[in-house]
Amino acid sequence: MQPFRAKKYLGQHFLTDVGIAERIVQSLTAADTRQVLEVGPGAGVLTRLLMAREDICLRAVEVDKESVGYLQPHLPALAPRLVQGDFLRMDLSALFDGKFCLIGNFPYNISSQILFKVLDCRDSIPEVVCMLQREVAERIAAPPGSRTYGILSVLLQAYYGIEYLFTVDEHVFSPPPKVKSAVVRLVRNRVAALGCSEALFRRVVKGTFNQRRKTIRNSLKPLLGGAALVHPLLDLRPEQLGVADFVELTGAVEEALRPRS
Asked: 51 φ, ψ to 5°?
C-alpha cells in the first residue's frame, strides 16, 4: 500500500499515530445508535479502526478529492459508504435513517462551524467524539467562571454533557501543527427544549459574551432597545452565568420585549 502524502487542507493535520487513533475510536460508545459518520477521514487512520468495530455501521464524508482518490482503492469496503462533499453544506438527514454518532479529527479552521452544525442537528446526534485544537476543546468544556468559558461553551453545554478526554502532542500529525490538540466527547443530555426562545437565547449569549468586560445590564442595552428589565443577573458578567442562568435571563428579556396591550 502506497503511503498517502498528506497535505494541509482547510487547516487539517493528518493523524499518523495508531495508538492515539485507537484511543479516539475506543472513546466512542455508540450507545444510542450503531450508525456513525466520520468527518474528514483523510488518510484513513481512524477509518480502518472504525471499520473493524462490529458494533457500528460506518459512513464517511470527505471534501478533499485527493483523500477520496486515495481511500477508494485502499479501503474498497468503505467506497460505497464514502461521500465526497462539504459536511457543512450537507443535508445530514439524507445520509442516515434516524440517529447517528459523529467522530473525526476536525480541521482546525472549521471546527467551530462543525460544532454549530451539531447543535442544529442535536436531536439526530446523540454523541460526538472529536479531536480539536486544544484551545477550542478547553473552551467548549470550560465551566462557568473559567477564563475560557464563552459562547460555544454555553450553547453546547445547553444540550450536551462535555468531557475533555486527553491532550495530543504535535509530533503525531503530518504536517505537525504549531499547537497541541485534544480529544473531547459530547453526549446529548435530556433537554428537549430550553423553556425559552432558542433564537433569543443565542442572541443573549452572543450579545453578552461579545462584550464580556461589561456587566450584562450594559451589554444587553442594544437588544432591549429601551425596554425596561429588572433582574439580579444584570449586575453580573456573562462568564459568571451557567446555562440555567442564561435560560432564566432569556425568559426575562423575552417578557420585557413582549408588546403590551
From this structure: -65, -25
Tell me if 169 sits within 8 A of 177, measured CB to CB: no
Please tell me the class of the 198-257 domain: mainly alpha
- Cut 0.70: pTM above it: yes
CATH tag for 14-188 (out of 2.120.10.30, 3.20.20.150, 1.10.4160.10, 3.40.50.150): 3.40.50.150
Nearest Cα residue to 249 out of 12, 80, 237:
237
pLDDT at 249 over 90: yes
Q: Please enumerate, as own/partner, the contacts of 244-249 that have beta carbons within 8 Å and a separation of 24 or more.
A: 245/144, 246/154, 246/158, 246/201, 246/204, 246/205, 247/158, 247/194, 247/195, 247/196, 247/201, 249/204, 249/216
Is the peptide bond preceding residue 176 cis, with omega within 30 degrees of 0?
no
